């Protein structure tokens, strides 16, 4: 390993100062864990060396990639976001893939480990799903110690394309995850995005979806679990730029100890997006008096003929549920674990098969 | 079945309990022997459901006096899960829905907790499936309910059948069924009652809590108790239930007034 002798700052690397909590988007998100890490460039091997592409999935050429890189970020208005700038400036590796239509869906696994050597692993992924193409993408990001994982994914879904996307982010108390998942959907396309994150000192996930002409299906599932000294933040945006679009979003949080959780769910329904149907639900399970949760729906609805619903709940484990299990001989602690596992199932069961096989949160949800 | 020499399974003496500092039970006395079926009747608010919850160990209820002895042990000092493992079963009036927890998994964990307590080997997934399929017959339940979340989206009748299925799997020594008949149509009531009758044996006992005679037409009790104002006011044989059906509860008020004065 070759350690950099130059001391760089995050500002040097991203070409912009770290966001501060005076900015509305970062109001509840303390970047102390990130600021405490002295950034070093990636010196490990090619993180994608073991990538195996199934039939129907091919790499974009360098010139093809250069032509499309950043387009989806721009269309979802996040190219200037600090985590995206960091990824662009300090990119370790870039991968562009094209998925062609076929009778059977393609399954792709992508595993990234940021290690524990205080390094920055910055990966940029560009996916082009052609008309009618179907892909099951199982993506894992992990860390073993002090590290920063920066992930920027761009997916372009042509008409009738179908993307089942599972992200399992299993971190470590000294590690930071910064991820932007930007998707542009053509009419008739379907996006099922399920993200499960746990264990990071700091994680910030930003799913950003644009239904470019409406009439697409977007299904978002999120689960974040925070324990002592962890902060998990999901900022999602779904924008409809045409009529008849559908959104079904469920975001779940479990907050233990001194864990902190942030959810901000923006849904934009401009005048052109008539007959949009959008439902967003944020549910939080607080397991401690010291945990803190900030959850905020952010619906901007201009169109008048729409069905938009949102809700947010914060609760504790229900005494009646616990007692019911106990009255069947199940010990209180095991009963609580069963209830938690049940709570997480809504999201975990939607992961594509390979991602589910990674058993996210297995430690928390050990088989009783 | 009354056998004066049968062992006492549950002995409740002068039991007093409150919820949120509100006294509900004012000295309940009850002795249940092996092989017996008891029915506790009474109006809403008489303390019937409180009695069942206190016996099962619900944390919202505080015992303020009296004793409960279960097979020679002080029941009140045991956690609810331990009470269940040593053979006390409460069939809930309103079985709780638990989203995301598979009914099959729940039944297996519960059954194994009980088996472990009585020194039997735990059942793996396959062995348990064989057992549960056999016990489903007791309540004529569709196996499809095993794959759903615990009680989630079940009709009232399905929930009560699921309770009796749990009873069939846990093979309790004393089963307390809290208004198992409420919300059941006549067919479901027959199935549930047949299940309870099938599970009754000379070695166990059943305590039925109910408002209505119609359950007692299907399950004949050995003893009937009438509860009012947090105590058992009168006990008798099955004829007491018939008398209640005929005369209603008005006499209870008069008798209660006498007790209060006395």
Can you describe this structure?
The complex is a heterodimer of chains A (368) and B (262). Chain A is an alpha/beta fold and 368 residues long. Chain A has one domain (10-317, 346-357). Chain A is 16% helix and 44% strand. Chain A has 8 helices and 18 strands. In chain A, strands 1, 2, 3, 5, 7, 9, 11, 13, 15 and 17 form a 10-stranded mixed sheet that branches. In chain A, helix 6 packs across helix 7 (332-348). Chain A is globular. The termini of chain A are far apart. The mean pLDDT of chain A is 94. Chain B has 262 residues and is of the alpha/beta class. Chain B has a single domain, classed as Rossmann fold. In chain B, 37% of the residues lie in helices and 29% in strands. Chain B has helices spanning 48-56, 80-85, 103-117, 125-136, 156-170, 186-199, 213-216, 238-247, 250-261; strands at 8-19, 22-33, 37-42, 61-70, 73-74, 88-91, 98-102, 149-150, 174-178, 205-210, 223-228, 231-236. Chain B has a 6-stranded mixed sheet with strand order 6-9-10-3-11-12, with helices on both faces. In chain B, strands 2-1-4-5 form a 4-stranded antiparallel sheet. In chain B, strands 7-8 form a two-stranded antiparallel ribbon. In chain B, helix 5 runs parallel beside helix 6. Chain A binds chain B through residues 318-321, 323-332, 334-335, 338-339, 341-346, 368, and chain B through 56-60, 79-81, 83-85, 89-90, 92, 95-96, 98-101, 105-106, 109-110, 113-114, 117, 149, 166, 170.
Q: Could you name the CATH topology of chain B?
A: Rossmann fold
> Main sheet of chain B, how many strands, which sense, barrel?
6 strands, mixed
Strand content of chain B: 25-35%
- The fraction of residues assigned to DSSP E strands of chain A is 35-45%
Number of strands of chain B: 12
Structural class of chain A: alpha/beta
C-alpha Rg of chain A (nearest Å): 20 Å
Categorize the overall geometry of chain A.
globular
- Mean pLDDT of chain B, to the nearest integer, reads 93
From the N-terminal CA to the C-terminal CA of chain B, the straight-line distance is: 35 Å
Instruction: Compute the average pLDDT of chain A.
Output: 94
End-to-end Cα distance of chain A:
43 Å
Low-pLDDT windows of residues of chain A? none
Number of self-contained structural domains of chain B: 1
């Amino acid at each position: 390993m070759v350690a950099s002798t130059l001391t760089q700052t995050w500002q040097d690397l991203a070409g912009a100062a770290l966001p501060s909590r005076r900015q509305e988007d970062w109001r509840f998100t303390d970047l102390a864990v990130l600021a405490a890490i002295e950034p070093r460039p990636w010196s490990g091997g090619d993180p994608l060396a073991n990538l195996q592409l199934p039939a129907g999935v091919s790499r974009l050429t360098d010139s093809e990639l250069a032509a499309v890189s950043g387009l989806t970020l721009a269309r979802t208005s996040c190219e200037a976001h600090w985590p995206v700038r960091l990824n662009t400036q300090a990119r370790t590796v870039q991968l562009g893939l094209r998925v062609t239509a076929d009778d059977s869906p393609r399954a792709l696994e992508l595993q990234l480990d940021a290690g524990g050597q205080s390094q920055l692993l910055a990966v940029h992924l560009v996916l082009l799903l052609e008309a009618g193409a179907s892909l099951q993408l199982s993506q894992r990001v992990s860390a073993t110690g002090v590290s920063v994982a920066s992930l920027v994914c761009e997916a372009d879904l042509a008409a009738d394309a179908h993307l089942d996307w599972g992200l399992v982010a299993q971190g470590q108390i000294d590690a930071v995850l910064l991820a932007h998942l930007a998707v542009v959907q053509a009419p008739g396309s379907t996006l099922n995005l399920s993200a499960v994150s746990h264990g990071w000192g700091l994680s910030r996930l930003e799913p950003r979806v644009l239904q470019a002409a409406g009439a697409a299906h977007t299904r978002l599932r999120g689960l974040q679990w925070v324990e002592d000294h962890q902060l998990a933040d999901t900022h999602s945006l779904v924008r409809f730029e045409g009529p008849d679009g559908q959104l079904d979003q469920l975001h779940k949080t479990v907050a233990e100890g001194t864990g902190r959780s942030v959810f901000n769910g923006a849904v934009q329904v401009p005048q052109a997006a008539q007959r949009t149907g959008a439902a967003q639900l944020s549910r939080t399970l607080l397991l401690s008096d010291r945990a803190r949760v900030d959850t905020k729906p952010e619906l901007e609805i201009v169109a008048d003929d729409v069905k938009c619903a949102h809700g947010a709940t914060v609760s504790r484990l229900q005494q009646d549920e616990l007692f019911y299990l106990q009255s069947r001989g199940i010990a209180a602690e095991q009963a609580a674990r069963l209830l938690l596992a049940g709570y997480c199932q809504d999201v975990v069961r939607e992961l594509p098969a390979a991602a589910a096989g990674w058993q996210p949160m297995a430690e928390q949800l050990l088989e009783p | 079945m009354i056998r004066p020499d049968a062992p006492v399974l549950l002995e409740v003496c002068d039991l007093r309990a409150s919820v949120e500092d509100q006294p509900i039970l004012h000295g309940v006395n009850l002795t249940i022997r092996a092989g017996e079926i008891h029915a506790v009747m009474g109006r809403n608010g008489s303390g019937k459901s409180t009695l069942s919850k206190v016996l099962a160990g619900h944390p919202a209820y505080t015992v303020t006096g009296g004793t409960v002895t279960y097979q020679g042990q002080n029941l009140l000092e045991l956690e609810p899960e331990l009470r269940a493992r040593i053979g006390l079963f409460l069939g809930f009036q309103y079985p709780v829905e638990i989203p995301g927890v598979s009914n099959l998994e729940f039944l297996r964990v519960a059954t194994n907790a009980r088996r472990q307590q009585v020194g039997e080997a735990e059942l793996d997934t396959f062995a348990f499936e064989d057992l549960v399929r056999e016990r489903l017959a007791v309540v004529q339940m569709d196996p499809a309910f095993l794959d759903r979340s615990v009680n989630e989206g079940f009709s009232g009748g399905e929930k009560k059948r699921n309770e009796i299925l749990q009873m069939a799997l846990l093979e309790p020594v004393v089963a307390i069924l809290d208004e198992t008949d409420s919300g059941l149509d006549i067919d479901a009531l027959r199935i549930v009652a047949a299940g309870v009758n099938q599970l009754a044996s000379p070695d166990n006992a059943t305590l039925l809590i109910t408002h209505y005679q119609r359950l007692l037409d299907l399950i004949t009790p050995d003893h009937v108790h009438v509860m009012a104002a947090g105590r058992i006011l009168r006990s008798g044989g099955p004829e007491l239930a018939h008398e209640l059906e005929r005369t209603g509860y008005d006499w209870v008020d008069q008798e209660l007034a006498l007790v209060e004065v006395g």
